[in-house]
Amino acid sequence: MIQPDFDTLYDALLARDPGYDGRAFVCVASTGIFCRLTCPARKPKRENCTFYETVYECMEAGFRPCKRCRPTTPQASSDPVVKSMVEALEKHPGYRWGEPDIVRMGFDPSTVRRAFKRHFGMTFLEMARQRRLQEGFTALADGGKVIDAQLTAGFASASAFRDAASKVLGQAPGTFSSAPLLFTDWIPTQLGPMLAVADNRHLHLLEFMDRKALPAEFKNLNKVAKGQIGFGRTTITDQIQRELDRYFAGQCGQFETPVALHGSEFTRDVWRSLQKIPAGTTKTYSDLAKELGRPSAVRAIARANGANQIALVIPCHRVIGADGGLTGYGGGLWRKQKLIELEVAYKAAS
């Protein structure tokens, strides 16, 4: 089924049109929440809205379910298995769910898995884990202590929360500075949540949270900051979130957020060259080597490209292979393809 256009969905949101209930969901960048289109809450500004067809897409983009309209409850609760499990999750959002718990409720884990995949595109256990971890990061960014974040995220122990967070950050939350120079927060996007590290002058890191190199990048940046990285937001975090919202909404392909470049002089030169590639345009490593006056440095340029830790703003995704094919991208080739497709519209409009 073809999804209606943005204007149609936004009008349906304003009208609380029940015809779209369960067919589309709205993700609100200013709150990090996703809702049914019939949600009774105050309606968000259109520039803060993104629409998805499934709960899975909303949660994968880093948004949390609204507590008023409860978008994770299927329309009319027609599936008794899903209804029971969602109600249990709502009653015990802090519980660390496992398959034995599903069995104790009288359900077959494989049946529950298939039912949730059918309704939401994700399993029950995946839904429960995402909610817990996102709530914990939000609590930390709001200035809460690790124990507060652990309880908010619903982890039964501090070690469980530390382990889950450490897989993303590369270090336990309790080791973060209480008087930081750099502040860490997450930003929801259409292609998944991103981690941003900034001070009040520059953006130092921006990566998709499932990037395998993120823990190592975070560790290196923490050395540069002499251990003074903590949780929270800055004016730069707010600025890059606004620009990312406009970027994914197809409104602007350029970023004005000032960035701090942590690398050798050669690496910084490569990154500056990347920033000059217009949205909707691609170049090869050979093209960059010639522009830098280093035609034989193709491999070194490829390494510098791969070392980029400020995704999108430094658009390493705009570099392709000599044969025109997609090459490696830390955020995943599927994201690289999506980004290039998105930026074609910018080129057409220029």
Please characterize this protein's 3D structure.
The structure is a single chain. It is built from 14 helices and 10 strands. The chain is globular, with a radius of gyration of 21 Å. The chain has 350 residues and is of the alpha/beta class. The chain folds into 4 domains: 6-65, DNA Methylphosphotriester Repair Domain (3-Layer(aba) Sandwich), CATH 3.40.10; 75-127; 145-248, no CATH class; 265-349, Winged helix-like DNA-binding domain superfamily/Winged helix DNA-binding domain (Arc Repressor Mutant, subunit A). 38% of the residues are buried. Mean pLDDT is 81; it is low at 146-154. The strands form 3 sheets. The chain has a 4-stranded mixed sheet with strand order 3-1-2-4. Strands 7-6-5-8 form a 4-stranded mixed sheet, sandwiched between helices. A two-stranded parallel ribbon has the order 9-10. The two termini are 31 Å apart. Residues 105-179 form the HTH araC/xylS-type domain.
Summarize the structure.
It comes from Roseibium denhamense. With 350 residues, the chain is an alpha/beta fold.
Gross morphology is: globular
Order of helices and strands: HEEEHEHHHHHHEEEHEHHEHHEH
The termini sit apart by 31 Å
Strand runs, count: 10
Main attributes of the structure:
alpha/beta, four-stranded mixed sheet, 43% helix, 10 strands, 350 residues, DNA Methylphosphotriester Repair Domain, 14 helices
Ordered list of secondary-structure elements with their pairings:
Blueprint: H1 6-15, E1 25-28, E2 33-36, E3 49-52, H2 55-60, E4 64-65, H3 80-91, H4 99-104, H5 109-120, H6 124-141, H7 146-152, H8 158-169, E5 182-187, E6 194-198, E7 203-208, H9 214-224, E8 229-231, H10 235-248, H11 265-275, E9 283-284, H12 285-291, H13 298-306, E10 319-320, H14 333-349
Parallel strand pairs: 2-4, 5-8, 9-10
Antiparallel strand pairs: 1-2, 1-3, 5-6, 6-7
Helix pairs in contact: 6-7, 7-8, 8-9, 12-13
